[in-house]
Amino acid sequence: MPSLKDLKNRIASVKATQKITKAMKMVAAAKLRRAQEAAEAARPYSQRMNAVLANIAQAVGQDDAAPRLMTGTGKDDVHLLIVCTAERGLCGGFNSQIARLARDHTRKLLAEGKTVKIICVGKKGFDILRREFASLIIDRVDLREVKRIGFANADQIGRKVIELFGKGEFDVCTLFYSEFKSVISQIPTALQLVPAAAPAVADETTGASAIYDYEPDAAAILDDLIPRNISVQIFRALLENVAGEMGAKMSAMDNATRNAGEMIDKLTLNYNRQRQAQITTELIEIIAGAEAL
Amino acid sequence: MVMADNFNFELVSPERLLVSGSVSEVVIPASEGEMTVMANHAPTMTTIKPGVVTIKFADGKNDSYVVFGGFADIVPTGCTLLAESAVHIEEVKSEDIVRRIEAARAELENAREDDHKYGLQSYLAELTTLQGIVVPV
Prior knowledge:
The complex is a heterodimer of chains A (293) and B (137).
Chain A: H1 4-60, H2 68-71, E1 78-84, H3 94-111, E2 115-121, H4 123-133, E3 137-141, H5 151-166, E4 172-182, E5 185-194, H6 203-209, E6 213-215, H7 218-292
Parallel strand pairs in A: 1-2, 1-4, 2-3
Antiparallel strand pairs in A: 4-5
Helix pairs in contact in A: 1-7, 3-4, 5-7
Chain B: E1 7-12, E2 17-30, E3 33-38, E4 44-48, E5 51-57, E6 62-67, E7 70-75, E8 78-83, E9 86-88, H1 94-110, H2 114-134
Parallel strand pairs in B: 1-8
Antiparallel strand pairs in B: 1-2, 2-3, 2-5, 4-7, 5-6, 6-9, 7-8
């Protein structure tokens, strides 16, 4: 049985924790709003990019001119997984969900006898995947110092991927991240980057695409476009991830604050009961003493 | 005199939508040389080299942005410019361009393939020209 003093200390410490989690929740809420704005602002570019890509891919078609990044190497022996997670924890199951998806995927590929290489973006995913696949991780990208994720960060990763592809280091590349649906729901997603699947053509552009002029020419533009599209996809994934992380952190911290509140109530009740029991004992002692005289 | 027709122009960078509105003409630094886009232009798709985009809005105002590579999608009713990076001309910092030039130079040192080398050399030349335009000497 803890003493009164112990209980008092305990209540004080839980209260302090509650204050911290409350503050963290509010910080996460503010950051979430910013992250959502950033994700929203980045949407037009990727939408237009998709439209243009669909258009041009149709023009080039599946002939030999199509770049290898799009057609693939014709094999699927070596898989490169880019696993994007958050840099920090305390956000519920956010990181472990992404890592679990990547882990299951890796196990499946390994069981099929494929070679797997992993690039970790974000510290948390690295920490989780290191336990099982330390030998498969070929690189990790640290974005901890980055306050606001810019296109340059994504471009760097994209370039790395393209360089590896140029050297023939992998055949298929898949990106793992968490899609931001709402504050309480983030869905871990796997997206194939290489070979790039051409997006479906929107109806309105189908007619126009036939008479497009291309400068310098369609294949050259496509050559330029595909690597850029990879960077854009990574950028989008990173932004979605930040929004998802903040959403997950917000609900995790909300839960923690509520739990702390419940704990304080319980402890206070306990504390009061014990205090009263002590008073009663004291009174009984006094009365018993008086009667004995 | 008949006023030139207006068309929709959008300048988008990966981070955000910078310009979206009705314009009468736009000069874009296409890879095959500068081109002026006006309404009812033939559908064209072109890559862009680093340079200055000059926009003449429908209401007569002018505006300029510096872009670092990208591509443009031109249709008779509009023009979309997807820039890898775009900055308003008044906000361009010379250090930024110098940094890009240095990065390109470093890449050129390591480049092996001729095609890549050639591409980097012309990229470098364009950046240097841009530096001359933007930075008051």
